[in-house]
Design goal:
233 residues; alpha/beta; four-stranded antiparallel beta sheet; 10 helices; 26% strand
């Protein structure tokens, strides 16, 4: 479905991605793991067309996306939920959700908003509340819900557990799995490697802009070397 092949990307002279190749098959959860500065968010930004790679190719369903704009990617159903939530603080919960559907012309927007509320009942309770007054966990729920309003075929999730209370992390990951079970493929960038591997089908581990390890998530999670280096066990 989605494929990066030997992608190199730069920030000025900084070589951020050094030949990254990965795939996100239809209906799967793929984890993208690694330390700070490994290239995880840069990879998502290449896919979202916020960064143009210097080398390599990015394909969606066999077609190159290198000349597409960020707006084109949203129309293709590739939608990014950014790190640090980035909700519109002065707008209400409901207004934030409506912004997620800004490119849609169909008549199912209200139905899809109700679907978001079934995933995140707290958002329905706070739908007329300003987003900036929500807790960090509630803002993360809103950011994911806003992304879902674009009807993603592939959802790019960037650090959904960052700064969230542990009890809410489990809740959010359960919902991520539910979203996937309904057919949305997910590329998950996550600092909590153990949690990410527990819900994903396949994992890539980045180091210094390169894929250092990849494989079935369950196999990697149970590998002694991976546990020692990346899971703190």
């Amino acid at each position: 479905m989605l494929k990066l092949n030997d992608v190199h990307a730069f920030y000025g002279r900084v070589h951020a991605l050094r030949g990254v190749s990965l795939e996100v098959p239809e209906g799967k959860i793929i984890s993208l793991l690694g330390g700070n500065g490994a290239g995880k968010s840069t990879t998502l930004n290449v896919i979202s067309r916020l960064i143009q790679p210097k080398e390599g190719n990015f394909e969606l369903n066999g077609q190159s996306m290198l000349k597409k704009s960020p707006s084109d990617m949203v129309k293709q159903g590739v939608i990014q939920c950014p790190e640090n939530r980035r909700v519109f603080p002065l707008l209400t919960v409901e207004e934030n959700l409506k912004i997620g559907a800004y490119q849609r012309k169909d008549k199912n927007i209200q139905l899809d908003m109700e679907k978001v509320y079934t995933y995140f009942p707290r958002l329905k309770e706070r739908k007329i509340q300003k987003a900036g007054t929500l807790s960090g966990g509630e803002q993360q729920m809103l950011a994911i819900g806003r992304s879902l309003m674009g009807k993603p075929k592939i959802l790019l999730l960037d650090e959904p557990s960052l700064g969230i209370a542990p009890i809410l992390v489990s809740e959010i990951f359960k919902i991520i799995k539910e979203i996937n079970n309904e057919g949305t493929a997910i590329l998950l960038v996550e600092q909590n490697a153990h949690m990410a591997m527990s819900i994903s089908d396949y994992s890539y581990i980045l180091e210094n802009g390169r894929v250092a390890l990849e494989g079935n998530s369950e196999d990697l999670k149970n590998d002694d070397e991976v546990r020692k280096l990346y899971l703190g066990a």
